[in-house]
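To assess whether the prediction recovers the assembly geometry, we first specified each molecular entity separately, as shown.
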Amino acid sequence: MTAPLFELRGVAKYFRGKTTLAERILALAGRRQPPATLRAVDGVDLTVAKGEVLGLVGESGCGKSTLARIATGILAPTAGEVFYQGRAVAGLRGRDRLDYLLKVQMIFQDPYASLDPRMRVSRIVGEALAVHKLLPRREIDGAVDRALREVGLDLAYRDRYPHQFSGGQRQRIGIARALAVKPDFLVCDEPVSALDVSIQAQVINLFMDVRARHGLTYLFVSHDLGLVRHISDRVAIMYLGRIVEIGPAASVFADPAHPYSAALIKAIPSAARRKAGFEPLQGELPSPLAPPPGCPFHPRCDHAMPACREIRPELAEIAPGRSAACHLHTAPKVA
Amino acid sequence: MTADIVLDVRGLKTVFHAVDGAWPAVDGVDFTVARGEILGLVGESGSGKSVTGFSLVQLIDPPGEIVAGQVLFGGTDLRAASEDELRRLRGDRIAMIFQDPLMTLNPVLSVGEQMTEAILEHRRCSRADALAQAAAALARVGISSPEARLKQYPHEFSGGMRQRVAIATALLNDPALIIADEPTTALDVTIQAQILYQVQKLSRETGAAVIWITHDLAVVAELADRVAVMYAGRIVEIGAADVVLDRPRHPYTLGLLNSSAAMVEPGARLHQIDGVAPRIDSRPSGCPFRPRCTRSLAVCADVDPPPQAQDGRTLRCHNPVPA
Amino acid sequence: MNDDRLAGPILADTPLREKVLRRLRNRPTTRGAAILLGVLVLLALLAPLIAPQNPYDLAALSVMDNRLAPGEQGMAGLRFWLGSDAQGRDMLSAILYGLRTSLLVGLISTLGALVVGVTAGLVAAQFGGAIDALMMRVVDFMLGFPSILIALVLLASIGRGVDKVILAIVLVQWAQYARLMRAAALVERRKEYIEAAVNFGLPTRYIMFVHLLPNSIGSVLVVSTVSIASAITLEATLSFLGVGVPVTQPSLGLLIANGFEFLLSGEYWIAVFPGLALVALIMSLNIVGDRLRRSLNVRA
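The predicted structure of the complete assembly is given in tokenized form:
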């Protein structure tokens, strides 16, 4: 196996709750809890091989968007290390760091917030090229046109502003902006969830086209399991800041090892299923400010054993290429 | 059968006035909902599905205006009803649930206060009685320790719980009709599954008719007895869920179903519908789906296809997909 | 693949500027105020050309013409349409030049306060942490005092002068812009296009001034139109109290002060006409600014 293109080792991101002066005084007077630490991402190991599509799924608040921002260098991890092409990203400076930032590009969720409303499309797409002087000034227009044509946008619109486009068109502009700097690795954070159903398929097809054309690698973050199953080679399932299962998409979806993966897959609405009298997964996502002890999933798990309440299962290999963090698969050490 | 019809909508048309004309958001919509039936109203943004929902309860503010049609609820035409009658119906016989539960929940009142108020406004009973009813309603939507929850304020609930509270509040007075506008769109799949499960159960138990407005065909497939697909302000195909979803005849319905990732092998190109839905002020002549349709004929450009009953459904198409 | 059809047609153009202008024109009060404001600004600009007399040129004044009533003719044959003051200065000319001084002070000080406040707010929002906390405490401190008090203390210690009045008003007004700018920039900074700029490795200063500034300054600019009026009021107050502009370059406020002592002796015109000009200026500025603020839906 070749060295992975991208790797996360023990990556964690903590956010401290914001406090106002009044809250701090109340906390001192014992009227309120001191601010808790939010463990958005809590020790994630992950590798992405060149050319593969890794799907990352989980419910809102599981930390998947934070993880995507760490991967692209938008956020710095609180702990752990990010490696790109075998080099620790934290140690990169100057040109090397810029190179990493440009090679790892993010596609955002909100087509309305991800484009500067006061910039014309041509400026948005060509901005990084111009500011970093990646191309001579006279070649930038051509590069912008190529990127726009690649995502299926009419060049007649290159001098329009973002508000003049529909959601699907804006998402195409965002993709053109990323493609303009010739990335290797696209981190897509819920890239179609804000789009209409009939537009989603167009954009997903575009993602697959540009991947085939440029040999791109994807980290595809989504809550839509049907989509992830479709587009991913491997899939990672996150729960409360940790990866609970990872493996080849086909085998994970066919035979999920973690009870949470199984519940998620069962909950995918499907047009083929009619008025299913299903018994859904009980309970709510616990607050990441106060995760339950032991396995974070145990309060909602049908298979919970006494050990699950005390010992947090670590991600361990259960079959070649497949790992899960569940005591059902790794006999818990007897305390 | 007809005796069981809760809501009968005929030729409903709602326009939005602009400087350059009145544009129809809902353009001649007919459907019925029966007792204990769940009707899924599916469409993309701008299809008019939400405006339809608001038009049913006459909650259309200027520049919008309902200009034609009848909304027969239990024999009375809601369009002719006075504001007073409507107010009495809403929150009692007709309940509404929105995507954002904070639209119906008051942030400064405890959940118990607003739920008892909702009961006392329409019923004669003691406050203690109302409180007990409210607790029972919360338990019905799967909220544990309802008595304690009644003392809490909306912000103390998570998104999914808040939506459940809104649903419980909507169901307090045993409405005959529930209009739900994308109530699970903002929620996670596991929470959505829980709510779908409970709504289905409640509709079966209480016999309430439900209109579930959503963009998600898959949700409708699991939930609804009947499906209505909206495009550009009109219902292009309506019928029993099994009929419409298993054997779609309208090219748009078929396109929506086929664009799902589940319809092709993993990694294959998805079947996409090209183009975008027309804006309200620039709809094409004839059939509004024509520019995106792969089956369009010459007649489609000239004649807007009228609704026709065929093959167990009502369809608006000159060249339907062969059965 | 038919690209054109795939991406669909472009949405119609709806320029906000036109909508706002249309709404402004549709209000008769606003339209009246806007016309009045335009006339006043034009008069101030053209003062040296249309004023019958240069009120700053002491040689042109004749003490013999002092305290003439409106409409009287002076010794040299000049008609004093709005009367004259104790030095024999034509009130109409003095008001035209005073309008000039008042507007100039109002505009320059507002501009200065904007530059200082917007930069401070932007820096606080961008860097956060201790810098933000410190700057916002300073802002709270500044906004905690009545502005007239701060300006009085400053001017009492550095003396009077147009430049010093401007400095005092900038000092008093920057804090409100800093607070507004910080709030707007904090909202804007959370948006994904800023994250995208970070992802492209764009320099922080570039992101601040090219992305963050133009997208968050709108509400601040709108509020500043109303603030020009309060800057002019503050200048007039300071001048009336005798710590503002120098007597050689009277603003409307100073003219009112000069005429004040003659008010009870029946020579009302020396104070009342500059007063009316000041009221007209401030009211028209306030109405136009407030309407602008409301039609753009900005909360001050």
